[in-house]
């Protein structure tokens, strides 16, 4: 007999820390997964449109990954070692990932998570420049460790007394809710210029780095225009800073143009960080940088016990191979466009849909109570998610006020599955509307 949800909820309440939250009024217990689907303890299938949180790139329990891990166990391959010893899995992955990176980036280090990848990025930028200040963006999220959290632009993720020394925030490039009250076609990129104003007004005139996500994940898949990043990189470099592109969510081809979105958009990044979909669910992150940033690290020790672990790096390498062999980046582009078009059609029938945005298979649907005032439809978003879950489709949620539905399925999603997503969403909107 599987353990009941009530029993698990009781134990969570008793044993886990108070900030451990779950999705849904009636939460889902997940025990099994295959391809695009996850299954609860009663073997009920759900089409997974969020993949943990944007971690499933090749599909759940892909046969090639299973085969690789089982064969490693069968051969008694070493499960744990560190970079203090030699092992080929880490260098095999390094070599393959760097082939996908922009030309200037030729060094890599593996971590367990995206937060740690960003910690290393900050440290390397500070070490190379001799400067301390990191410029981040309001509405961004870069992780839960000390330096990463201090660059988090959401009150919901910040805790009391969390130090935020040596960081400053620039305005968000959020066209739907432009902080300057402008329209994208006539704005002259004031948001990018604000990076310069921020440096001029809240630093001594030089910075260590600027960090930005090319699509702002936790922020609700905010999708700034490409030129924003070009302008931002120019400003950052003019003020002596390094550009950190946080690709923890956008990496691995999710956005449908290249393995790294920074490369596709031509962002002049000095450092790229990644995690999530890199290992298709394995806990692995990576910091990629230029030799110019890596060289000044010489003579000091930077160590991560599990970073570069043979099983995690092997899983990430197979994931990359699957993405290449099954042409999943092209599929992300095709299915992303198909979903986007379908969602824009839904927008005509559902007045809560303020904006549909995103790149490839990273699509956000921002819900508002009123299209003119753009009042956040937080409870409505939760209700649509709940109804869709009961109909067998799992969405994610994001945005400063939890009013953005997030769609980020495995890159192998099919057209038929996209149709299922659109149908369930359409029905869920109609049913949710009756409750408000
Ligand atoms: C853009 C971005 N950077 C960093 C992180 C932190 O990654 P992790 O949770 O693996 O530490 C996240 C996590 O959601 C993220 O979305």
Compose a concise summary of this entry:
With 436 residues, the chain is an alpha/beta fold. It has 14 helices and 15 strands. The chain folds into two domains: 5-58 and 327-433, Aspartate Aminotransferase, domain 1 (Alpha-Beta Complex), CATH 3.90.1150.10; 67-325, Aspartate Aminotransferase, domain 2.
Give a verbal description of the structure.
With 436 residues, the chain is of the alpha/beta class. It has two domains: 161 residues, Aspartate Aminotransferase, domain 1; 259 residues, Aspartate Aminotransferase, domain 2 (3-Layer(aba) Sandwich). The chain has 14 helices and 15 strands. The strands form three sheets. A seven-stranded mixed sheet has the order 4-10-9-8-7-5-6, with helices on both faces. A four-stranded mixed sheet has the order 1-2-3-13. The protein has a four-stranded antiparallel sheet with strand order 11-12-15-14, covered by helices on one side. β8, α9 and β9 form a beta-alpha-beta unit. It starts with a helix and ends with a helix. 49% of the residues are buried. Pyridoxal-5'-phosphate binds next to α5. The site of pyridoxal-5'-phosphate (PLP) has 17 residues, from α5.
Q: Identify the bound ligands.
A: pyridoxal-5'-phosphate
Category by helix and strand content: alpha/beta
Low-confidence blocks of residues: none
What is the first-to-last residue Cα distance? 38 Å
- The CATH class of the largest domain turns out to be Alpha Beta
CATH architecture of the largest domain: 3-Layer(aba) Sandwich
In the CATH hierarchy, what is the superfamily of the largest domain? Type I PLP-dependent aspartate aminotransferase-like (Major domain)
- Measured on Cα atoms, how large is the radius of gyration? 21 Å
Q: Return the CATH topology of the largest domain.
A: Aspartate Aminotransferase, domain 2
**How helical, in percent, are the residues?**
25-40%
User: Can you tell me the number of structural domains?
Assistant: 2
Give the rounded overall mean pLDDT.
97
> Largest beta sheet: what is the strand line-up?
4-10-9-8-7-5-6
**What's the story with the biggest beta sheet?**
7 strands, mixed
Number of helices: 14
Spatial shape:
globular
Number of strands: 15
């Amino acid at each position: 007999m599987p353990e009941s949800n009530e029993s698990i909820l009781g134990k969570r309440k008793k044993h886990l820390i108070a900030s451990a939250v779950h999705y849904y009024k009636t939460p889902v217990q997940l025990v099994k997964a295959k391809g695009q689907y996850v299954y609860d303890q009663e073997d009920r299938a759900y089409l997974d449109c969020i993949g943990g949180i944007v971690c499933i790139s090749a599909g759940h329990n892909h046969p090639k990954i299973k085969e690789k891990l089982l064969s490693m166990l069968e051969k008694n391959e070493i499960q744990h070692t560190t970079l203090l010893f030699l092992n080929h899995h880490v260098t095999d992955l390094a070599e393959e990932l760097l082939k996908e990176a922009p030309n200037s980036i030729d060094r890599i280090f593996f971590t367990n998570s995206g937060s740690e990848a960003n910690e290393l990025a900050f440290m390397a930028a500070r070490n190379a420049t001799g400067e301390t200040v990191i410029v981040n963006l309001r509405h961004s999220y870069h992780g839960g460790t000390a330096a990463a959290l201090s660059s988090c632009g959401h009150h919901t993720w910040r805790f009391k007394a969390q130090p935020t020394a040596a960081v400053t925030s620039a305005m968000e490039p959020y066209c739907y809710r432009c902080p300057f009250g402008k329209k994208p076609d006539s704005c002259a990129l004031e948001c990018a210029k604000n990076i310069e104003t921020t440096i001029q007004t809240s630093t001594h005139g030089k910075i260590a780095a600027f960090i930005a996500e090319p699509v702002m994940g936790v922020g609700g898949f905010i999708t700034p225009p490409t030129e924003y990043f070009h302008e931002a990189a120019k400003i950052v470099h003019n003020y002596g800073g390094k550009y950190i592109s946080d690709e923890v969510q956008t990496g691995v081809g999710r956005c449908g143009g290249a393995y790294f979105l920074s490369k596709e958009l031509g962002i002049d990044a000095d450092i790229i960080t990644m995690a999530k979909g890199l290992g298709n669910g394995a806990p692995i992150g990576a910091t990629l940088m230029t030799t110019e940033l890596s060289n000044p690290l010489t003579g000091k020790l930077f160590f991560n016990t599990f970073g570069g672990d043979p099983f995690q790096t092997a899983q990430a390498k197979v994931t990359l191979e699957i993405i290449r062999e099954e042409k999943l980046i092209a599929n992300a582009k095709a299915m992303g466009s198909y979903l986007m078009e379908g969602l824009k059609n839904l927008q005509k029938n559902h007045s809560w849909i303020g904006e549909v945005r995103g790149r490839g298979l990273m699509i956000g649907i921002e819900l508002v109570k009123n299209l003119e005032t753009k009042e956040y439809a937080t409870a409505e978003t939760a209700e649509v998610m709940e109804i869709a879950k009961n109909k067998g489709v799992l969405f994610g949620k994001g945005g400063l006020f939890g009013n953005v539905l997030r769609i980020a399925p495995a890159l192998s999603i099919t057209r038929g599955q996209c149709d299922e997503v659109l149908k369930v969403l359409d029905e869920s909107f109609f049913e949710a509307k009756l409750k408000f």
